[in-house]
Amino acid sequence: LSARVMCAEAGGHLDLRDNALMGAVPACAWSAPRAALLLSRNMLSGSVGALGPRVRRVLIAHNMLEGDFGAVLAGAKDLEVLDASHNRLTGELFSGGALTALIESGNLRELHVARNALTDTADRPVVHAALSQIASLRAYDISGNNFVVAAARTRGSSASVSGPTAVHAALHLDVKDRKSTRLNSSHLCNL
Fold first, then answer.
1. Torsions phi, psi of 71, nearest 5?
2. Cα–Cα distance for residue pair 95/74, rounded to 1 Å
3. What confidence category does residue 8 fall into, taking pLDDT thresholds of 50, 70 and 90?
4. CA distances for 43 relative to 63, 65, 87, angstroms
5. Strands 151-154 and 157-160
6. Taking the CB of residue 121, how many other CB atoms lie within 10 A of it?
7. Is the pLDDT of residue 188 over 50?
8. pLDDT at 160 (0 to 100)
9. Which of 72, 106, 147, 168 is exposed most, by the fewest CB atoms within 10 A?
């Protein structure tokens, strides 16, 4: 990929979705001052860098991108929509102060990170603790990652979960009616 094209300070957006682009995304492309970086459905590889503070929309789903996800979000204070699903991202969903920054900004509306290798810990669970703190969040999908669950409720009773556990959680809020619809929320499966 051409660094000249990918790193240009366009201010608007870079839309290269649905092509057969291959190779690594230049490091400067992630932090370039632009409103949107749209690279979904290619064959891009390499590490995802830290997003710039002015980027509002990042669509990088269905590639082979890697990297520590917490570091990606650290400086993205204006981020509104992120779809990084179906990649190879690792690390905790909100490490390095990213959660605090997103809560304070009040901008993040959609977060889709399904089918990566993201983790959390029993003392810092993602589903019920961290995501619920982001008041602006209207839709998310974190299914297909490596999240930890200390205990599960099965039909009104408390039961311990031993071994790896899959957490499937998706949320969609109908803002017009102020109704919440949870899809597969807290659905637990021992692997």
1. -70, -30
2. 8
3. confident
4. 5, 9, 10
5. antiparallel
6. 11
7. no
8. 42
9. 106
Spacing of C-alpha 5 from chain mean position: 25
Tracing tokens 């520590």 back to the chain, one arrives at 68
DSSP class per residue in the chain: --HHHHT---EEEEE--SS--EEEPPHHHHHSSEEEEE--SSEEEEE--PPPTT--EEE--SSEEEEEHHHHHTT-TT--EEE--SSEEEEETT-TTHHHHHHHH----EEE--SSEEE-BTTB-IIIIIGGG-TT--EEE--SSB---SEEEETTEEEE--S-EEEEEEEEEETTTTEEEEEEEEEEEE-
- Distance separating alpha carbons of residues 150 and 160, to the nearest angstrom: 7
Give the CA radius of gyration of the chain. 17
Given pLDDT bands bounded at 50, 70 and 90, which one contains residue 132?
Answer: confident
Q: Which residue type occupies 31? A: S
| Residues 98/101/104/107 CA torsion (nearest 10 deg) | -80
Residues 12, 17, 22, CA angle at the centre, nearest 5°?
A: 115
- Amino acid identity of residue 172, one-letter, is H
Per-position b or e across 13-35, b if 16+ CB within 10 A of its CB: ebebeeeeeeeebbeebbbbebe
